[in-house]
Amino acid sequence: MSLSEIQQKKQVIESRSRIREFVFGIQDGLISTVGLLAGVQGATENSLVVIVTGLTAMFSGAVSMAAGSYLSAGAQKDIFDKEITDAEKLAEREPYIAAEGLLKALGDEGLTKEQSYRMVKTLLQERNVFLRTFREKVFGLGSAEINQPLPAALVMGLSFVMGAAVPIVPYLIFSGVSAFYVSGLLGGLTLFGVGAFKGRLAGQSLWSAGAQFFLVAVGAAVVGYLIGLIVQYFFPGITIPAG
Amino acid sequence: MGLPRVGDHAPEFSAKGFFQGAVKEFSLSDCKGKWLVLFFYPADFTFICPTEVTGFSKLAKAFVDESAAILGVSVDSIDSHRAWAAELGGLEYPLLSDEDKRISAAYGVLSEPDGVALRATFIINPDALISYEVVSHVNVGRSVEETLRVLKALRTDRLCPSDWHPGEPTGDVALKY
């Protein structure tokens, strides 16, 4: 790896941290839409109704998920920002305590007392560097932990649309039960593909990462279906809507 | 072991110390016949301790002028003291290594949870009796000026009022308190 690649690595890592929203969005969009379309298709012979229902759920779901992601990332960021401010105020107000805290943190990471002391003494010569190191090492408040709300929301929303679109497309081409089977098949292949993509980023076996992803996502859908069956068994008059 | 009381014989000790490039043995009996300022501190290579350690070094001559020796004690090794003294630019008194923590325990200043000595200062008179002792929380550094002031007051062998300084009136000990 070249020096310029190392220097760009931080941005690459930050962009790859979006994987959480990507996986969540695609998986939720796909699974919820497959279930919804299956339920609507079972209740009506009209493909147009199925497709419109699917598209409506796709866009409304994307907006809802994006809003949720924005709010949750925003809440986390607000709390982190406050903790960072408090940590820096503590270091300003009690420099000796901050220095001793960083000394201990470096010692806990394996440096000798002498090494830790020299490192902290050097960092103290540059206030901003000391403050940043102090909050990262002592309180674990690194920039990588902070999810930016707007990018998180965009990735979540777009991923949801991508996931939801997969099971809808077969209904544009096929009809009836055939559309359902193709929709399910495409959904399964997409889940496997997303898992394999994650595996590639994480340096794992594509097959095992894909299979794990597929089994967890489909397993969750099957459990949800079974819970619906159990509820219907005990409450025969109740019909559980798909999705 | 509890804190010895003022008036008690100072607990005997003998330990290796580092002073101006050399390692040798230091003991309480070496100091018999002169005043001894024995101060304990938690650890080398921390950020409150250097202010005191260098503080005593800066005023070392003033203590010598009062016929007093200074010995600093912590539970660090001799090698640590060697590096610490170098880091601080050299010291005017020895640093003793109490790695087995016996001296700290004997003087009642060992902090059991941390395994380090508390910040404690003992002024021991020429008869090896404890004349003054102060122990504080590890977070609070001592006043070296105050230690010197107390030493001077003790050496008058007279009654000294609060915040007494040399040149100010003292009282005959026959007056009692």
Number of helices of chain B: 5
Which oligomeric state applies? heterodimer
Extract low-pLDDT stretches of chain A. Answer: none
Order of helices and strands of chain A: HHHHHHHHH
- The 3D shape of chain A can be described as elongated
Which geometry of chain B do the CA atoms define? globular
First-last Cα distance of chain B: 30 Å
The class by helix and strand makeup of chain A works out as: mainly alpha
CATH-defined topology of chain B: Glutaredoxin
Number of domains of chain B: 1
Helix content of chain B: 10-25%
**Sheet with most strands of chain B:** 7 strands, mixed
* Helix/strand order of chain B, N-terminal first: EEEHHEHEHEEEEH
Number of structurally distinct domains of chain A: 1
Give a quick summary of the entry:
Chain A has 243 residues and is mainly α. Helices cover 84% and strands 0% of the residues of chain A.
Mind explaining what this structure looks like?
The complex is a heterodimer of chains A (243) and B (177). Chain A has one domain. Chain A is mostly helical and 243 residues long. Chain A is built from 9 helices and no strands. Chain A is 84% helix and 0% strand. Chain A is elongated, with a radius of gyration of 25 Å. Chain B has a single domain, classed as Glutaredoxin (3-Layer(aba) Sandwich). Chain B has 177 residues and is of the alpha+beta class. Chain B contains 5 helices and 9 strands. Helix content of chain B is 25%, strand content 25%. In chain B, the strands form 2 sheets. Chain B has a 7-stranded mixed β-sheet with strand order 2-1-5-4-3-8-9. The mean pLDDT of chain B is 91. The chains are: A mainly alpha (243), B alpha+beta (177). Chains A and B meet through helix 4 and helix 5 of A and helix 3 of B.
